[in-house]
Amino acid sequence: xxxxxxxxxxxxxxxxxxxxxxxxxxxxxxxxxxxxxxxxxxxxxxxxxxxxxxxxxxxxxxxxxxxxxxxxxxxxxxxxxxxxxxxxxxxxxxxxxxxxxxxxxxxxxxxxxxxxxxxxxxxxxxxxxxxxxxxxxxxxxxxxxxxxxxxxxxxxxxxxxxxxxxxxxxxxxxxxxxxxxxxxxxxxxxxxxxxxxxxxxxxxxxxxxxxxxxxxxxxxxxxxxxxxxxxxxxxxxxxxxxxxxxxxxxxxxxxxxxxxxxxxxxxxxxxxxxxxxxxxxxxxxxxxxxxxxxxxxxxxxxxxxxxxxxxxxxxxxxxxxxxxxxxxxxxxxxxxxxxxxxxxxxxxxxxxxxxxxxxxxxxxxxxxxxxxxxxxxxxxxxxxxxxxxxxxxxxxxxxxxxxxxxxxxxxxxxxxxxxxxxxxxxxxxxxxxxxxxxxxxxxxxxxxxxxxxxxxxxxxxxxxxxxxxxxxxxxxxxxxxxxxxxxxxxxxxxxxxxxxxxxxxxxxxxxxxxxxxxxxxxxxxxxxxxxxxxxxxxxxxxxxxxxxxxxxxxxxxxxxxxxxxxxxxxxxxxxxxxxxxxxxxxxxxxxxxxxxxxxxxxxxxxxxxxxxxxxxxxxxxxxxxxxxxxxxxxxxxxxxxxxxxxxxxxxxxxxxxxxxxxxxxxxxxxxxxxxxxxxxxxxxxxxxxxxxxxxxxxxxxxxxxxxxxxxxxxxxxxxxxxxxxxxxxxxxxxxxxxxxxxxxxxxxxxxxxxxxxxxxxxxxxxxxxxxxxxxxxxxxxxxxxxxxxxxxxxxxxxxxxxxxxxxxxxxxxxxxxxxxxxxxxxxxxxxxxxxxxxxxxxxxxxxxxxxxxxxxxxxxxxx
Length: 863
Prior knowledge:
Mean pLDDT: 89
Low-confidence stretches: 281-290, 537-546, 570-581, 856-863
Strand order of the largest sheet: 1-2-3-4-5-6-7-11
Structural class: alpha/beta
Helix content: 25-40%
Distance between the termini: 52 Å
Number of strands: 39
Largest sheet: 8 strands, parallel, barrel
């Protein structure tokens, strides 16, 4: 069993939460400030608080990571640069970054500031880790969808590539049903972008399952996309053995008591892996020692929607999402029986209750898309009526429970005694941790004694003055006690009242020598005073964050840095306007062979086939070879896991004219074979990110992120070479892209693809939301599901501006259109591009949503 413990990384949305994390054993905390982070609904810190915050953490030996894990729009690059400089100057230990352009910018501005690749980067394979390493990342946060066996395989693959990249894994908290960084639901349906820190949690809403045109009865299951919360404390030994560097707790929106309770649980689990008194067999039997039932109960009370090990234990679609509720619940303790004539509530439960405990009972929902009614209150009195049956009085006040059916589930939602413990845990003070001074004393007879600072904490003193001091008088031969190791340590180690303690002391004295104690004390005071004025603990964090340039100089050099990171200069506006519609290329993505065949006689530039069945790929190429000027291309899956590299081989064998690439594995494997265009899933939101894919990977074009509004998109186009940005102007927006398979979970008795019977191949499935909209569900080759918006959207109104800006490649994405509908759709857009009909006429006639990407209405950003 390993004794090298992973780092424990806790969330901090407020000062109280930050202090609670540190007090209960966090090795590091992560937090956001008032801009550019994926939890904009959290209280967050102000950026001017960064120096104070980092000083507080470092004086307690704890690291602090700043989350900047959102897409950065072109007009925000200056602000992002300011934040990077502020983080570096404040001593932040690392930036957690989603945006590739921001990662590149941070490396230029502050090369010693560590960068961690966020889970928003959708890193699921060795290729993804390798790309992060090339960008300068010093750690990656892996996608939550990976399992223990994936970590083992991934570590072996990284070793083969000679990449030593620390891996970070989520172990506790809320699970997103969609891959982080690949979810467009929140803004498409609720105008709050998950890639911009404003997730509206559409996954927590009820849905109906429509199978082959009919509603499928699912009983009490209505929250079909809401996973249980992750709780992996029992898997700590396995994660440590696999060499996972950091264990991450989710929860920057949570209160300090939650942070305290969960951090303490994982700290205790980690510490039980270490050998020591009373722990002779570390890692074995710790589940029993830690009373797992009580641990689970406590974690459920702190906050849970039900607890599971998520994907870590492997795929089990039926257990990941129970579908019964989506809000906070405590432990389920029993069932409602009845109310007797004296107003006592009879509950079947093995759980001992006490006055003050909070209970909630759930009634029957009037419909599949309405939340079930709840009744609850505090236990005012309790009596044991029979084995497994309690009688309770609920209050305060009269609570009418006559509508509750027998068997209604009962949850314990509050335990005041336990909450009191958590409050005390959260409010504990954490003393400052003294940091070691590494010193050297040297000298010889007749010379002054020289005291030299080698290291203060993690601060490496430069080998020049002013980091050494000399005694006022020379060293003399000793007639009594000489300056030996013990005497020097005793005098120089008198550092009480300072944040320092004496560490290694190198003694390099020639002969038996003497110096008055007063002069040793004076040297010590000079050292301490100098440290106080020059080296603050906030400015010497464990990783070191020296700027390549001073803050002012770096800011002045920013325009040049930005230019160096962008692609080549774009076309001039006059040339762009001259091109207009003449150079326009219509690109069509088809999802069936019938759609492909229907386009053989249509004036499109290129057709991209995205097909679920690999055996159809060669047929698609045969149908389209030589038909369109831009060729017949293929698109693969959006995600590639560590064991799925083989899924790209059919794409290569089909010998397409080119590929639409969606992840790092496809970039590695497909770009050497044929021209490639990067899809929207690469999340290109600014020219710095575009340059990475255009220059580093040699892509022909990139597809603009769907998070961009029109003005932001035009800024992206202006910062890129002419014709290098492709814009999707028609599509059914892909809302959720998820490892979770609803076909398996609700249309089979299996748990994964090995025993589900492949209902995805025989059934048409829609999800109906509360508004009555029905959204198509599709499964890809890897059994991942994509939920598409039921209503197609168009950016036809923006066509004149796009064409004037020099956008030449306009993409139409089909979903389930027939052959006739396919032809009609292409002809419509041809007319709009030629100016024969207006964009408004197009969307009104076809009853489409007028949107560019996931924005609404005016097609303007909402900054």
